[in-house]
Amino acid sequence: HDEGLAVARRIAGAYVDEEGLVLYPREALQEVESAIRRIYETNPNALLSPASVVLRIKWASEKLAAEVMERLGESGFLRQAEGLWLRADRDPAELIDALPEQLYRILEEEGLTPEAPYDLYDRLDLDRKRGDGALKALTRAKKVIRLDRNIFVTHDNLHRAQALMRELMVKHGYLDIRLFKVETGMSRKYCIAYLEYLDRQGDVVREGERRLLRFGMGNE
Question: Which of 19, 22, 30, 126 is 20 to 30 A from 160 (CA-CA)?
Fold first, then answer.
């Protein structure tokens, strides 16, 4: 390895990722820089890390992404705050501190079928680790409830879902996955998550795949 690295270091204009043992031509740095610039120009509120970049540019190493982001920082296009890179003209406190509330508003607007966290983070150009931290803060505050590995719903939307399920049980005498899908149009994944949460409520009894109210509408 040492001999190969010594040769690679002598190649003019190339970038050597010595940890990953990868040699990149000059054009690779330019391509990564252009891609990163496009992200921040399209979304001025992007909050990314080198780890975020390599999820978008599969062939690039994290070390290469870090090098390019450092260069963009030196040029005045980006700035670093709390391990994240943001546009130099953005206030770190406003973007980072507002993350939990931003995620909460989106999940609330998405109603009973919120998108998976990683899909949400990628759409927002948000570093996944930082997104997970903000989402965990919301769950600790009980503003968001985790129903399944990739289903996080706001407390208010969960309350609406439970009210709807009880209404359907009163209307039909029972509720199961098929009936819930027909009545709501939700996918099986969401129906199962809500019904399994319902199973843990004291006023509901499960008989096979059917859920029945134990005593009238009950109280939550």
Answer: 126
Amino acid at the residue 66: A
Q: Give average pLDDT by consecutive 10-residue segment, the chain, 220 residues.
A: 47 56 72 96 97 92 91 97 96 93 98 97 97 97 96 98 96 96 97 95 91 66
Q: What whole-number distance in Å separates Cα of residue 174 and Cα of residue 155?
A: 24
Query: Could you say which of 2.40.50.140, 1.20.950.20, 1.10.10.10, 3.10.560.10 is the CATH number of the domain covering 95-152?
Result: 1.10.10.10
**Per-residue model confidence (pLDDT) at position 184:** 97
Q: What angle do CA 148, 149, 151 make, to 5 degrees?
A: 55
**44: DSSP letter:** T
Residue 134 burial class via C-beta count within 10 angstroms: exposed 0-12, middle 13-18, buried 19 and up: buried
Alpha-carbon distance of 16 to 14, in angstroms, equals 7
Rounded Cα distance between 145 and 133, Å, is 15
